[in-house]
Amino acid sequence: MGRQMTEMLKGTLEGIVLALLVDRPAYGYEITAQLRDRGFADIAEGTVYALLVRIEQKGFVDVAKVPSEKGPPRKVYTLNASGTAELNEFWMTWSFISARIAELRTKGE
C-alpha cells in the first residue's frame, strides 16, 4: 500500500469499521476479513485490534464475550446508538470532503 493510501486510511478507518458493524455484530478477525474482502488487504490485524479498543473506549460499540470453539472467548462488537451517531457524522463529513475533491479534480481536467 502506498504512503498516501496509508495516510488517508488513518483518518477514515474508524468510520469504515463502524460501517461494517451496521450489518451485524462481529469479532476482530471477522472485521479484518471483511476489510480484506473489500480490498483493504494490507491493513494489519494489529491495526484493527487497536482501533477496536479505541472505539470501545469511546463508547461507540457494545462488547460481549462469546465462547469460542477454539481458545478463549471472543469479543463481539455491536454498533450502539453513539456509534450510529458517529457513523452518520462520518458519512456527512465524507460526503462534504469527497464533493470538494471531485470539484477540484474536474477543474484540473
From TrEMBL:
It comes from the Bacteria. Residues 17-89 form the Transcription regulator PadR N-terminal domain. This is PadR family transcriptional regulator.
